[in-house]
């Protein structure tokens, strides 16, 4: 199965994603009173204490706001099924969505030559490891949306 065909039922971040006619989108929420936007979705607004939040599709594209390369294996509770011997560095960044909210995300590239602040990014699912039984693990990530 191509992970982009549908959201796998056992995807650990499935509650953060929706699928529309154009593909995957991030799910957030917006305060019905003051308009504050959140990712991940929340039940109440920290800006005005309103408890009536509206679901909001944040979309699938944004601009790279900041980034770094995770060059060492993350500590617990992160568990990708990797060991120190087979760990591969990966990019991590903040992507600013059109509504202004910044989403922390894994990036599809860890190559500094291929990343720059402000570049357009697109949402996708990526494999980041596997369970002990060999079942692949996927998460959302952002990758460059076009040529530099």
Which features would summarize this protein structure in a list?
five-stranded mixed β-barrel; mainly beta; four-stranded antiparallel beta sheet; 148 residues
> What string gives the helices and strands in order?
EEEEEEEEE
Q: Tell me about the largest β-sheet.
A: 5 strands, mixed, barrel
Report strand %. 35-45%
Helix fraction bin: under 10%
Principal-axis shape equals globular
Number of helices: 0
Low-confidence stretches: none
Oligomeric state, counting identical vs distinct chains = single chain
Summarize the structure.
By secondary structure, this protein is an all-beta fold. The chain has no helices and 9 strands.
Layout of SSEs?
Layout: E1 17-20, E2 23-31, E3 37-38, E4 53-59, E5 61-70, E6 90-96, E7 102-107, E8 120-130, E9 136-144
Parallel strand pairs: 7-9
Antiparallel strand pairs: 1-2, 2-3, 2-4, 5-6, 5-8, 6-7, 8-9
Written description of the protein model:
This protein is mainly β. It has one domain (14-144). Helix content is 0%, strand content 44%. It is built from no helices and nine strands. The chain has a five-stranded mixed β-barrel. Strands 1, 2, 3 and 4 form a four-stranded antiparallel sheet that branches. Strand 2 (23-31) and strand 3 form a beta hairpin. The mean pLDDT is 88. This is Zn-ribbon domain-containing OB-fold protein. It comes from Stutzerimonas tarimensis. InterPro entries: ChsH2_C, ChsH2_Znr, NA-bd_OB-fold, Thioester_dehydratase-like. Pfam families: OB_ChsH2_C, zf-ChsH2. Residues 26-53 form the ChsH2 rubredoxin-like zinc ribbon domain.
